[in-house]
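Our collaborator T.R. sent over the components below with a one-line note: 'Predict the complex.' Nothing else. No constraints on interfaces, no templates requested, no preferences about which chain binds where. So this is a plain run: every listed entity goes in together, and whatever single assembly comes back becomes the starting point for the next discussion.
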Amino acid sequence: MTHANSERVCLDPRFAPPFPQVAEQMLRNPQLRKNVGHAIDVIQTKRGKLVVEKTDWQELRSAASAIRAHALDNLGVYLEEFEARCTAAGGHVHWAADAADARQIILGLLREENATEVIKIKTMTSAEIQLNPFLQAAGVNVYETDLAEIILQLGEGEPSHIVVPALHINRSQVREIFARTMGLNNLSDDPKELTNAARTYLRQKFLTVPTAISGANFLVAETGTVAIVESEGNGRMCLTLPRAMISLVGIEKVLPRFQDLEVMLQLLARSATGERMNPYTSLWSGVTPGDGPQRFHVVLLDNGRSSILAKNKERQTLKCIRCAACMNTCPVYRQTGGHAYGSVYPGPIGAILTPQLMQMKHAQSLPYASSLCGACYEVCPVKINIPEVLLELRSQVVNQERKQAGRFFDLMYLGLRIANLIFATAWGFHAAQRMGRIGLRFFTRKDGWIHSLPSLGAKWTQTRDLRGLPKQTFHQWWAERAKEGK
Amino acid sequence: MNQPVPSRKLILDRIRAATSSAAQSASQLAEAYAALPRAYIRHGSLSAQACIELMIQRLREYDAEVVECAPEELADTLAAQLAASGRHRFVAPSGAPPEWLVTSAHPIKGLEWTIDRGLAIDEIEKAEGIVTAATCGIADSGTIVLHHSSREGRRVLTLLPDYYLCILRASQIVETLPEYFSRCQQPPALATYISGPSATADIEMTRIKGVHGPRILVVILVRDDANK
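Returned assembly:
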């Protein structure tokens, strides 16, 4: 089966099944694992070479981490400064408290433009607020312009990575999608030919659609500058050809000064795609007469970010510059791909960001979607200590469960309460060991291993085998040895 | 049309409540900013010649064509490049110096220059090539920096035509990105950094050149540093 979307994927944390459940489905999909593994190998090899040649990599990381932390510590001042500079340069700044607020503001702006069509530069923030389905339902046709996003939009698929969102789809799957939706029956699966098909498909859109939506990689408070980094040129098309432009940006994206870009830009491309610099970086502030859109709006999105800011250990989550180095290096992401995370933000950063952006009850399994190996922290260009935040969130999950009334019907909770009693006394423990040895004998195979257990025990055996209990405990062996020695 | 005031106030109030450690005054903020660690490399260590060679090497790695010439040879070199391109309809930015447009040494049959004085998009789209100057070259990453002055043109000029010829002077080349930023005392209102031609790796990480921007990049490197 080469069809890219044989199974519908849900990336809305409110409705997505828990991580282990989707992860198991993904692990049974060899094509997907092969596609993800290949893409990640390529990025990792390129990144590795370019990080090694950068002799001041650690110094850059330290500077970037400090700049981002400083910007967050003083976020209010820097956002107001950005607003003042952007407005002075002819831009309009809007503030959206949550996703619904942002969607309404954007729709209102599109209505002012009488827009029936809009072209888009890839933006995770718009996926976060589920902008496309909302605009479609309101009668605005949305055209994604990043190649990967087109593949997903035409194939009705969901992103599985924040930098290369279609890395789970291979060339023959792309061919199938393009041939079907563009009516190109003679298309081959040569990536060059596929890319050309997308170029032709989009050219007319770029030249005719008068309104565009983007995200942003950085905002600069000092100058009111918005920065977008990209590779294809679709971003530059959207930034220069339309009459009106709307940038949807999370409030955390602000940098204090223009010069801070010298740190961020050196880290971002190397971390994200393994390039010394991405092919195109665009910087602009407000509106420039005679060049590009003459009406420019920035929508600053909170949507849960200010509550992350309020927490000590979790605040560092907001330093993220969305390079995806953490998912590229993560042993869990490598096996499951992005869809298992049930969010537009997958991988280690998604595992900490999603539960915080949403109510925790919608993403309780995500803080556990990690082996805590720490590889994500090591590669993070802004030094987010992801394992530390994961542990903090795990403790919150447990504390939350501890207070729930339904806990007395939860086998796990009751089991742990019983274990608590058993471990409290030596005789209780010895009795439990004897009972266990007798009970487990029925499940232990001839090879000495337990391959499957019923009920709660299955939580262990569904992913690994368990060694059968030995015939005697260490204590018994010690006592016998002492007796014989006499 | 403006956003309802409550959202702005709501968000800023939430932020203020969340950041009790924020600087209390402008001077405190400036002090905290100045204290941020910046131990990374600001200035390169290469000689001027080695720096230019690195720039050329990086550009060639991106499959850009690089031609060097002395300042007085620019017009001839440009004409030769345009003739070799096999293209005829070129656009020049509004501030293009007259010497670019003179092609007497290599008269090219059918060569047609259009100066951008507010050209419509479809006129730019019809052009086969564009010639511009640049603001800076960054050797470490092979980056061409445009601040879109009248010699560098509007942003769209260097985007739609398939062939882009950039005239970069050796004296504009720096080794590191921070050196460029320290030259930028007055941050530009518009800037584009170009590091190789438009590309994608979205299909199986196979790098494909020329998705939307120019597929061909030619750099004429004017050695205005020769007398130093």
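Summary for T.R.: The first helix of chain A runs from residue 19 to 27.
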